[in-house]
Structures are given as structure tokens and as C-alpha cells.
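#structure-requests
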Amino acid sequence: MKHEREDNRPYQVGQVRITFTAKELTAWGGACSVLAKYLERISFREWVEQHVPIEEHSPNAGGIYPKVLSLLLTSVAGGTRYSDLRGWMHGRQALAACFGVDWLPQAPSVLTRFMGKFRRPHAEALREAAGGLARRLLEEAGVVEDDLVLDSTVCTRYGEQEGAKKGYNPDKPGRSSHHPLKASVGCGYVVNLWNRSGNVHTAHQVAAFFEQTLRDLSAALKVRRVLADSGFCEDGFLDRLEREGLRYVVAMRLSEYMKLAILAVADWTEVAPGIEMAEARVRLSTWQQARRMVFVRQHVPTRPKATGKQPALFADLEEHREYRYGAMVTNDESLTPQDVWRTYRPRAKIENIIQELKEGYGWHEFNVRGFWGTEASMLLIGMVGYNLIHHLNRCVLKTADEAVCRLKKIRLKVLAIPALYGSGGRMPVLRLGVRDPRMRARIRYWLQRICLLELKLPNGNAVGPPPHLSA
């Protein structure tokens, strides 16, 4: 009893007493109102139940949707691992009522066991469904032509996950990792995503990845131009683009051969203060033909925030030591060198999608022991969750006009609004803790915009996994 009395004793900060309340409060009133209304409007629950190909037979399983919803809410609330589930669970009754579920998982093991049920057929079916969702969002947005942006990245692992191998890892050399591929379009939607083992070459499977992406996109969008990072600069891949008649601009690694090609350039043209460009036709030793190269160098004293790299070979050369360099290969002969650079530059903004997925959604840290369970987590967060938040921002919130919407900004301005859950007029009521009249008007506007959305997610019957793999 003495311990109980001490626990109930009020504490004080300055002249403010600190105590507790048993009322149903939540820090995520904005999520309970705006996000919950959005998911309800687009029939997200029906989409999950028809397209997430895991079958549960136990009467105590609780259903697939609460688990998928909990994973997405953990990510949106700023979590970076399954154990962060507990961080947003205060006010669980309000969350369950607003999101329309009977219960929400309270233990991270519920989610890890669920994701551990995924096998390859499940992950492939989920990828197909997530791609269909992305195409539906592009159709609803009226996007019929756009650039296709291809990227690869490294996700460091600290356990014994399947496929986590030692390979290229610039941030943590020698540490095991996965090496996923991602495809997005210029307006910001992610349209494909593959996980790969960490010990594969950067260009491993890029041709098959591109073919699947192009095949899935062909009915919804015309690819204007392919922009890719240096991991896609492989002769077979570039040859494939050329045979298909697709224009491309792909970044080049500053290999020893490329450095020699840059040193051979005699004429540089200044296109802006501190920025010079040149071009040449170069054939690498692994290529069957010479291709057009565009070189960019930026004068560091003039542009202290210059991008690019300064190879060690150039450090002792007076003509080159104050510059940072970049190189691109292209088959678009209609563009001047400056136009090639301007075409490729927006890709840097789109490349921020990976940074946003990692820093905003914790996408790279949600993993389980099974390889396909980890890929399923990547798909649910990196394609389904990210694309829905991106669509919500573009069509309703409009917190920014950028191709990449910052979840941190949405979280602070929209989702993290304290609220009190109770009753009034014989029905449940969520009372948002907002005093500013302008903010109240803004929330009402968002809810009205959501009610006017005509988007309904594709709810056709998904192709399920083989019976012997059903969980």
C-alpha cells in the first residue's frame, strides 16, 4: 500500500502539478480523423483483405487487416522497428473505433509472426497487388506520361536474416545487408520494388526488374525517359533500352577508365558560374559500342555545396583539384549537354524517395528472419503505405508541391493532434485538442476533400498462393 500511495502522489514542475487521468486520450487525433477517414473512403480494408495473400484459420487470429494497419501506423508514427508498436498505442480504444477494427495488436510478436508467414508466392502476389494500387493512383491523378526513375540502395542488417550478406555497404563496410531495387515515376509514386541479397552485384537482376516494371506500367503510363543511378549502367541493360527505342540518361561511376576519359577532355564550356560541361564518345572495355558521355564539373570555391566527386587521382593535378565531377551516359542526341544535365537533375529530387522511406517511414529497418517476410514489409511500407500517404498529400493535404512529401511534416502538422475520446448525444465522439480557428477550418476542409474523393482501390479477386503455402 505504501508503494501505491507513492505512485499516486502528485509531482510538480514549477507551479504545475503532475498527475494522471484514466480518460481515453490519444496523441494521434489527426490520424484518427483525417487518415482513418481517408482509408475508409478508399475502401482500404477491403483491398487488404482481398490482396494480402495470407490465410488465417485460427479463431483467435484476429484478422489480417488489424495487423497490416498496425504495421502502417507504426511506420507513419515514426517507428523504425516492430517493437515501436507500443509507442502509438495510448488511446487504443479511440484508435480501434476510428479505424473500424475490433482490436489492435499489443505485442510486436503478433506482427513478426504474421510477416514470418510470407513465402515467395505470397510476396509476389503482394507485389502484383501493390503495383495495381500504384497504377490506380496514377490513373486517378491523370498521369499518362512521365519519367521512370530506377534506384538501388543498401539496407544494413544486424541479425541473421535470410539474404543478409556481406557486400557493398558504403555506410557500414563489412556489415551484412540487403540490396533492394526501387522504381518510381517523376510525380513521386513508387511503382515497383524488389529485395535482393546483400552480396549481389549492383547490376544484378536490373534487366528483369526493368522488364517487369515496364510491362506492369505499359497499360497505365507512357515512359518518356528512363533515369537511373550508376548501378544500372550495364551494357546489357543499356542495349535493352536502345532496342526498345527508349531514351535514357544514366549516371556513371567514376571508374579509372572514366577518370582517364575526363582527363582527355580539352574543352570545357561554362554554363553557369562555377559549372562547366563537356561531352565525348566513350567505349568502356565491357561495352560493345561507344556511347555519348556528358561530363559536369563544379568549381568548389565558387560553389561550396557542389555535388559530384573529387577522385583521388585529381587531387595532385592543379587543373582539376578544385573541381567535383559527375558523368552521365545518354542516347538522346536531341539534347545539348546542358539539357542532358537539366533532364537528369530532377532525378536527384526523386532519389530523395529512398531517403524519405528510410528517414520518414523507417522502411529499411522493418525486417524478420525470413527473406520474403522482409520483402513483404518493404512492399507494405514502401509501396502501399508510402503511395497512399503521397496520394493523400497531393489530393487533400497539399502540405507541399514537391514530388516527395515529407512524412515528418505531415506527422507534426496533421497526424499528431491530441484528442479525447468519449461520448456525446448517445454516440462516440472524438474531441480534437485544437484551439486555433484556422487549424479547425483546415481540418474540416481536409475531411470535406476526403469525402469528395472518387478513388476506390481495385478490389478484384487477387491470385492467391498455392494451397500448401497458405498460412
